[in-house]
Amino acid sequence: MRIALCDDEAQENERLESMIRRYAFDKNYDIECEAFTDGRALLERDRFDLYFLDFQMDGMDGIEVAQALKEKYSNAVTVCFLTNYETAAAESINRQIHADGFLKKPLDPALLGEKLDRFYGMSFFNRFELRQGKRFRTVYAQDILYAEASGKQILLHMIDRVETYNYLIGELEKMLPRTLFYRIQRSYLINLQHVESYDAKSVTLKNGETLPLKDRNFQSAYRNFIFLINR
User: Fold this and answer.
1) Domain closes at, from 88, 121, 154
2) Bridge pairing between strands 153-158 and 162-165
3) Of 135, 148, 153, 163, which residue has the fewest beta carbons closer than 10 angstroms?
4) Can you give the pLDDT at residue 192?
5) How many whole angstroms separate alpha carbon 48 and alpha carbon 12?
6) Residue 204 belongs to a domain with what CATH number?
């Protein structure tokens, strides 16, 4: 897993990187960290699996960097803010831009470990090999907006394209992380990360598409998802 650290104080980056490396060693995880003291430099790099962003920075602050990342990658990024603020202030920040977590400074190694465990446990970084004709392609779970049944195949609606795969939608459902994906009706399996809004009859995704909703348990499932990513 590739993690980007962005804090305008180099010592803070070093401290966080040391904690993450200790965690990775204890868990025997393959984690690569890269530190940045400027948000603009971070935005010039390819996508990382996880971003730890300091909320207050000279130049671009954490909110501005997160907004730019989400625009660049169509919301398919995982962001955890580092902040001195208490929970109420963090919730206020979250109303400006959705985050996948907060950590209060000074950082507690145990709480950091819990966050990293949760990100792994929720399979945010799962990669899948899916059959496409006679070939297999690697697909990232967080790049999937939704899957649509099309006869004996599925149309996988990605952030920037639509691809066809040789699976029934029920087969794909068993392969994807249940925490992230939900079957809103017979023909549609959506990524809860990309939900913008919903009502009794439809779900609107962050790219503006609206899909029909025919599952009475969706509200409960979506609230559970929001609880898990914000705890």
Assistant:
1) 121
2) antiparallel
3) 135
4) 92
5) 19
6) 2.40.50.1020
